[in-house]
UniProtKB/TrEMBL annotation:
InterPro entries assigned to the protein according to its UniProt record, in alphabetical order: Amidohydro_3, Metal-dep_hydrolase_composite, Metal_Hydrolase, YtcJ-like
Origin organism lineage: Bacteria, Bacillati, Actinomycetota, Actinomycetes, Micrococcales
UniProt protein name: Amidohydrolase
Occurrences of domain Amidohydrolase (ranges): 49-525
GO molecular function: hydrolase activity, acting on carbon-nitrogen (but not peptide) bonds
Organism field: Labedella phragmitis
């Protein structure tokens, strides 16, 4: 039997019946008591560890409602280059990795810092001597940039600049020859996917390490938006040898051109699950992103784009969601543009009423008209939003997102306040590795509509939410959006997935909120690996 109690502090329970308490007791992975320190001590078993909170706060562990952990994990293959701020130290690490993998084999690395290039251009050829000319592919810590050597570019067939449908770029010199710097996923995946792919055991190790990083920022749960059979196999492999340190709800990825056989195969996978993971449902796309003109909008963008869904035939979308729904899967749909949200709500409304155990969801909802907000209000559909994605907006509207939307429509972005006020179950997430996995900066984006540094522009200040609302979106609401009534809440009988912060987040300045130390993360009452 394991037992731990936290006393003499702040417990933010996310339980409407008792939002605040002083102490909480955990026995055998479940909440055993919540209340005053005296009440909790009285309910604490004799052998239990008792932790004085000393100004600290306990909350339900954070749930990232939109993430891609296996994709992100794959990006962290090879040697960890974190903390190496000189080219010399990076070369040293690469030489060692090259010896480890053997002559000529691909050298991979991640967590590379820009400082390693000392402020000058990122170039692959600077690394070639260290690896004896072996193909080498290194990911920067922010997952926005990678650098590849000439041998790696050659193996991937990359010999010059290319046009991408998004912000991705193969950086080339004046001579048109790639320098090795690769910006954003579509460009770097081109080269990264030319490397030998990891085995199942290697992927399991990468995912375990990734979930330890999740735990370090207080995450104990995530909804995975690009579920594949491979992911299910990897999760199963991890649970064969141990326990997952993050609870995983998988949404299987349906592509618009998937045929009936693919739908049937996915329905067959829906029964798979383990101790801390399960297939929750299916994720579909209705549109793309605003920046590239592929979001589906009520009115065209400044380039005349935005008038189409991702589906050649929208009736096919309506048909496949009916089949998935009838098979008992949760439905969630990527809808960035306002017209996409409207169309998905109409399509969901044609289905039999949803039950609380599997609420239907929409991912992103980046812009919404007033009418869309009203329609959302009565729909029972969950809004899964990423306030953190405002980080790519510019105050002067010079970014491609605002340029395409124009000033008036850009001001209808990320309407978290209006959506909450409409009574919509609203959850937050990161979309990691698209944006950082750490919930704390996301809280600040939601509450301040501005960067945690405090020196950036403020976007639509009337759309601010309170810290309590942001925390709820990352805990209780995240659980309810997965139909999990005994998670995301601190009340007797609930699962003891907890995070301990050094201070009460609701009483911190924005910059302190973004960096408040995470003292412990517990899953089922036990310390998550660190
Ligand atoms: Zn995503």
């Amino acid at each position: 039997m394991s037992a731990i109690s936290f006393v003499s502090g702040i417990v933010r329970t996310m339980d409407a019946d008792r939002p605040l308490a002083e102490a909480v007791a955990v026995v055998d992975g479940r909440i055993a008591a919540v209340g005053t320190t005296a009440e909790v001590l009285a309910a604490t078993p004799e052998h239990a560890e008792v932790v004085e909170l000393d100004g600290g706060a306990v909350l339900p562990g954070f749930i990232d409602s939109h993430s891609h952990p296996l994709w992100g994990a794959r990006l962290s293959a090879g040697v960890d280059l974190g903390g190496l701020t000189t080219l010399e130290s990076v070369r040293h690490a690469l030489a060692a990795e090259s010896r480890r993998v053997g002559p000529g084999a691909w050298v991979r690395g991640w967590n590379l810092e820009y400082a390693a290039f000392g402020g000058s251009a990122v170039r692959g050829d600077l690394l070639e001597d260290a690896v004896g000319g072996a193909p080498t592919f290194l990911m920067f810590y922010d997952l926005h940039t990678a650098v590849a050597t000439r041998a790696a570019l050659e193996a991937a067939g990359v010999s010059g600049a290319r046009e991408f449908g998004d912000a991705s770029e193969i950086v080339v010199g004046d001579d048109g020859v790639p320098t090795g710097e690769l910006r954003e996923p579509t460009a770097y995946d081109l080269v990264g996917s030319a490397a030998p792919q990891p085995t199942m055991a290697e992927e399991a190790d990468l995912l375990v390490a990734t979930f330890a990083r999740f735990n370090a920022v207080g995450l104990t749960g995530c909804a995975v938006m690009d579920g594949s059979e491979r992911l299910l196999d990897v999760l199963e492999a991890i649970e064969r040898d141990g326990e997952l340190s993050v609870r995983v709800d998988v949404f299987l990825w349906h592509r618009p051109d998937d045929d009936d056989a693919a739908v049937a195969a996915r329905i067959d996978l829906a029964s798979r699950g383990g101790r801390r993971w399960r297939v929750a449902g299916v994720k579909l796309f209705s549109d793309g992103v605003i920046d590239t003109g592929t979001a589906w909008l009520h009115a065209p963008d400044a380039s005349g784009d935005g008038l189409a869904s991702f589906w050649p035939d929208w009736d096919r979308y309506r048909e496949v969601i009916r089949r998935y729904d009838a098979a008992g899967l949760h439905l969630t749909t990527h809808a960035v543009g306002d017209r996409a949200v409207d169309a998905v709500l109409d399509a969901y409304a044609e289905l039999p009423p949803a039950d609380d155990a599997r609420p239907r969801r929409i991912e992103h909802l980046e812009i919404l008209s007033d009418a869309d907000v009203r329609k959302l209000a009565g729909s029972g559909v969950v809004a899964s939003m990423q306030p953190l994605h405002m980080q790519w907006r510019h105050g002067d509207l010079s970014d491609s997102w605002a340029t395409r939307l124009g000033e008036a429509r850009a001001a209808t972005g990320f309407r978290a306040r209006d959506v909450l006020d409409a009574g919509v179950l609203t959850v937050f997430g990161s979309d990691w590795p698209v944006a950082g996995m750490d919930p704390r900066p996301n809280f600040v984006w939601a509450t301040e509509r501005s960067a945690p540094s405090g020196d950036g522009p403020v976007f639509e200040p009337h759309e601010r939410v309170s810290v309590e609302e942001a925390l709820t979106a990352y805990t209780r609401s995240g659980a309810l959006a997965l139909g999990a009534t005994d998670r995301g809440v601190i009340r007797v009988g609930a699962v003891a997935d907890l995070v301990v912060l050094a201070a009460d987040p609701a009483r911190l300045s924005p910059s302190d909120l973004a960096t408040v130390p995470i003292l412990r993360t517990l899953i089922a009452g036990l310390p998550a690996p660190s």
